Amino acid sequence: MAKLTGGDWNVEEIKVDGVTYFMVVDEANRTIVDTCNSEVAEIHEEADEDGVCRWDEQGSVNCAAISALPQLLDLARAVIEHGDGPLRQAARRALSKAECEFTQEQIDRMKPGPGRDN
């Protein structure tokens, strides 16, 4: 079973066609996720005497949140271990969602076959 990419995650910039997009990278600078093809991108533009600057503001916010995931999961584990009541239950739900495992039915649906996009 795949595990979460280890180590700290950071946000880096990537330029595509004059627009700055964002990506989350691991400690070895390998891309975990990027916003280059995002359907929720919000391209902002500012112009001054030096030229025009365009960037994906929504991608910046989303990547910042994603990059915090390893620390947030550590926090959820600590709350489960040391907390109680509703906070502990909320931490269990969040951790369960983050550490998803595919059921056999989900795996079967991903396999190529009749009626499926191959």
Shape: extended
**How big a fraction of the residues is strand?**
25-35%
Low-confidence stretches: none
Structural class: alpha+beta
User: How many angstroms does the end-to-end distance come to?
Assistant: 23 Å
What's the β-strand tally?
5
* Rg (CA only): 19 Å
What is the percent of helical residues? 25-40%
Largest sheet: 5 strands, mixed
Total of DSSP H or I helical runs spanning 4+ residues:
4
Order of helices and strands: EEEEEHHHH
Average of the residue pLDDT scores: 90
Characterise this structure.
This protein has about 120 residues and is an alpha+beta fold. It is about 40% helix and about 25% strand. It has four helices and five strands; from the N terminus they run E-E-E-E-E-H-H-H-H. Strands 1, 2, 3, 4 and 5 form a five-stranded mixed β-sheet that branches. A hairpin with a 2-residue loop joins strand 4 (about 45-50) and strand 5 (about 50-55). Helix 2 (about 70-80) packs across helix 3 (about 85-100). The longest helix has 14 residues, at about 70-80. It is extended. About 10% of the residues are buried.
